[in-house]
Every structure is written in C-alpha cells, then in structure tokens.
C-alpha cells in the first residue's frame, strides 16, 4: 500500500526522468498518506492513442468518476 499506476500516450522517458517522476510521486504520497516510502509502488504504462478509450478512459475515468481526485478536461 499504496500503489500508483500512470498510464500515458507512448513517449520516450529516460531512466533519469522516470526516477525523478517516481521520487516526486513518492514524496507526495508519503506526505499525504503519512506512510513510509518503502511501502509505495509505482507503475508506468504506455497506452496507444488507439487503445486509450477502451483501456483507460472508459474503465478508469468514466466508470470510476467517484474515485477521481482530478478530472480531465477532454
């Protein structure tokens, strides 16, 4: 606990950029949830634009609106 999953359109991210992203997310999560950084897991998953509606938008955004803490404006 907790687990964060980032789904995004494919783009090249260096390992340095991934590490920096993980550090920032971990910092925010540990501060907000008052937990140790060692219990945080983070995944990053590229999803093609063609698959976005079926794999991300409908199941994760449209069908889970009550779980969203930030809503997209598209």
UniProtKB/TrEMBL annotation:
<dbReference type="GO" id="GO:0016853">
    <property type="term" value="F:isomerase activity"/>
</dbReference>
<dbReference type="InterPro" id="IPR014347">
    <property type="entry name" value="Tautomerase/MIF_sf"/>
</dbReference>
<dbReference type="InterPro" id="IPR004370">
    <property type="entry name" value="4-OT-like_dom"/>
</dbReference>
<keyword id="KW-0413">Isomerase</keyword>
<protein>
    <submittedName>
        <fullName>Tautomerase family protein</fullName>
        <ecNumber>5.3.2.-</ecNumber>
    </submittedName>
</protein>
<feature type="domain" description="4-oxalocrotonate tautomerase-like">
    <location>
        <begin position="2"/>
        <end position="56"/>
    </location>
</feature>
<dbReference type="Pfam" id="PF01361">
    <property type="entry name" value="Tautomerase"/>
</dbReference>
């Amino acid at each position: 606990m907790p687990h964060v999953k980032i789904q995004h359109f494919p783009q090249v991210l260096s390992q340095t950029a991934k590490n920096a992203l993980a550090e920032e997310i971990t910092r925010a999560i540990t501060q907000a949830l008052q937990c140790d950084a060692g219990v945080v897991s983070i995944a990053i998953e590229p999803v093609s634009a063609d698959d976005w509606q079926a794999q991300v938008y409908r199941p994760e955004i449209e069908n889970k609106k009550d779980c969203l803490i930030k809503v997209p404006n598209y």
